[in-house]
Amino acid sequence: MSEPSVDAALRDRVATMVSTATDGEVTTEEILTGGGSLAALGVGSLAVLRLVDALDDELGVQLDLDSPGTHLDDFDDLVRTVQERAVGDDLGRTVQERAVRDDLVRTVQEGAVGDDLGRTVQERAVRDD
Fold first, then answer.
1. What are phi and psi of 24, to 5 degrees?
2. How far apart are CA 121 and CA 25, in angstroms?
3. How far is CA 89 from CA 79, 84, 94, 95, 101, in A?
4. Is-contact 43 26, C-beta < 8 A?
5. Distances from the Cα of 90 to the Cα of 3, 7, 86, 129, angstroms
6. What contacts 114, CB < 8 A, 6 or more positions away?
7. Which residues contact 50 (CB under 8 A, 6 or more apart)?
């Protein structure tokens, strides 16, 4: 039986979350291109704990570190586990919304958006709901 395909946006989001959990010591690019063992990339136990909290807070995915079905060392296994345990159809929307939000934050930080940003974001939120 073949492995389920992994959503690219989810893969990118989890890689970003792993990088954030390491305080940027391991970059998103290193995670995406290196794949395989997170420990081999330099993701320590404290970062894993931060990652577990972030997955719960941001994606609603709860992982039990003591559970034999929890795969946290191999990046691709981790992404598949997150995808399998995600809450309904909201996962894709959540990942996409966070990607859009992150892009908006970067744009605002670069000073490229005018005063209508707040109104535009609210209008999109109302429209999407």
1. 80, 0
2. 32
3. 16, 11, 9, 11, 19
4. yes
5. 22, 13, 8, 12
6. none
7. 20, 21
- Per the CB < 8 A criterion, the answer to whether 45 and 118 are in contact is no
pLDDT tens, N- to C-terminus, the chain (129 residues): 445 566 888 899 999 999 999 999 999 999 999 878 899 999 999 999 999 999 988 888 888 877 776 667 889 889 988 888 775 545 555 555 666 666 666 666 666 555 555 555 556 666 666
Amino acid at 18: V
pTM, full prediction:
0.63
Question: Quick one: three-class SS letters along 42-90?
Answer: CCCHHHHHHHHHHHHHHHCCCCCCCCCCCCCCEHHHHHHHHHHHCCCCH
State the Rg of the chain over Cα: 16
Phi and psi at 37, nearest 5°, equal -70, 125
